[in-house]
Amino acid sequence: MDRKKSKLSGFFDVINKLEDVVLAILVIGMVIVIMLQIIGRIIGHPFPWTEESSRYLFLWMMFVALAAGFNRCESSRVTLLLQVGPSWLKKFSELLYAVFVLGFFIIMFIYGLDVVKQQIQWHEMGTALLIPMWIIGICQPVGAVLGFIGTIQSFLEYHHKVAIGDKEAEKQKALENEG
What is the domain partition of the chain in residue ranges? Predict the structure, then answer.
């Protein structure tokens, strides 16, 4: 797994497990709700709450999954241009990556909280489920906090994945070690 343990490893383990459990519950919930939606349509009596429920479960799933992708530096990154660029750019890219990703999560958190405040002030409710919309909207700031934590984890415990390095030199070295 190539994980370098840090002082925060126990905390990261709890957060990772929490994300895994929440995502499993959300996926299972989506499968059940969508199956009920299909069955309702087949029998000619669709359940109006299933569309709204699947949308809300999907929103929560996407924000938690977005965050989980950063725990072990498994998120998408553009590295091709960095590979052909000068070596100073490769060194600078880690800082650039940290600033942009952490900045993205900070902005996501701030604007997510604004949306939640607005939903609370306006007493927004779901149409079919009649639940307060802030329960759904809070998935954005929660995802931002989890993503911020995951990014810190990837820098502390999976730095070799964050570092761009020279992939061609690494490939050549790996080939030499095999032979």
Answer: 9-178
With a CB cutoff of 8 Å and minimum separation 6, the contacts of 163 are 94
CB of 164 closer than 8 Å to CB of 85:
no
> Across residues 12-22, what is the average pLDDT?
96
C-alpha torsion sign, points 36, 40, 45, 47: positive
Q: Which sign, positive or negative, has the C-alpha torsion 63, 72, 94, 142?
A: positive
Q: With contact defined as beta carbons under 8 Å apart, do 64 and 22 qualify? A: yes
What residues contact residue 156 under an 8 Å CB cut-off, 6+ apart? Answer: 4, 6, 8
Distance CA 86, CA 25 (A): 46
**Per-residue pLDDT tens digits for 130-155:** 999 999 999 999 999 999 999 999 88
* pTM of the predicted protein model: 0.84
Tens digit of each residue's pLDDT (9 = 90 or more) over 156-166: 888 777 766 55
